[in-house]
Amino acid sequence: MTEPPLSPDAGAPALADAEAALRAAAGGAPVCLGHDWLTGMRGGERVLEHFCRAFPDAPIATIVGDPALVSPDIAAHPLLRSPLGRLPGAVRHYRGMLPLLPWAAERTRIPAETRLLLTTSHCVAKGFRKPEGARHLSVVFTPMRYAWTFYEEYFGTSRAKAALVKPLLARLRAWDRRTAAGVDRFVAISRHVARRIRDFYGRESSVVYPPVDLARCTPGERPGEGGFDLIVSALVPYKKVDLAIRAYNRLHLPLKIVGAGGCEAALRRLAGPTVEFLGRLPDEEVVDLYRRCRLLVFPGEEDYGIVPLEAQACGRPVVAFGRGGALETVADGVSGVFFPEQTEDALADAVEQAGRADWDPAAIRAHAEAFGPAQFLEGMAREIRAVLA
Length: 389
What we know:
By secondary structure, this protein is α/β, with parallel strands linked by helices. Helix content is 41%, strand content 15%. The strands form 2 sheets. Strands 3-2-1-4-5-6-7 form a 7-stranded parallel β-sheet. Residues 1-10 have low confidence and may be disordered.
């Protein structure tokens, strides 16, 4: 079933109450958290932080992890690394170990006293084995994306590579489907992901939307004063940053791009004089860009997408591709504009439409407030009570 967003976030008291409600939902049962890998701070790790604060004594099971690469809230917890995670250089090279990740997940030791295994998974964490007598609640960001969807975006169109990779992906899909049986209850981060869980695993799931940080992301005194448009994204193929660059080359409008990734060199070659690359930036600098941008561009199809909500929390509108999770987090005509197909014409038309609109920063912020941390924690408390019942 799908849970709608709750009432607007009431701030710190509501958040403290929600964290207490999450702890109370577990009823004192020993909790173990699980996460795919801890090698940086992205959207999934921001979700994990909330569980870390609610369950300060819980260990975290993970394939590989380095406390120096995550936030203090996460680093304060004991890390239960897989056999791969104990190898020298694992944190740097784990992405090249894809064929071994299922093996490593099944051999990650969860403490025998655990009664609630709470995993946050976009790859193999949902395959961690619960101890006898425990219940497993898995928050799924997406079923293993490169195994089920976006094959060409990850691996290209080479026939030789396909001959090598496709048999491996078939085995990964079989493992991913089989280990779904070890999960007692699924939570999807969007209706879009819930459909994938149903299609790939044959399981139903509840929907609890991940939270935007309403305390960190706030409107500026002069919204949009910078006069530029903004992308905040990993520079990888499925994000479709190249599409936005082509559109802005044609529009001759200023576009700033925050992020890094394997496609950066090719994207820099593609970019015209109005496109500026800023690389990775600290959170506070990204928030400053959100506040000063004219609008945020979100050209890819995402399972959820926290970046558009961060921009909206800062009172800025979003131009988004009209598929995937953005359809659930952007209000057409209130907090943004959708473009119907991933073409330069469609994106350029939407940018021009958004540029002509008279946006209300307060209304955009109010829309984002329905996706705050307190609502997320209250939703997860319902799910914990249900799985332990």
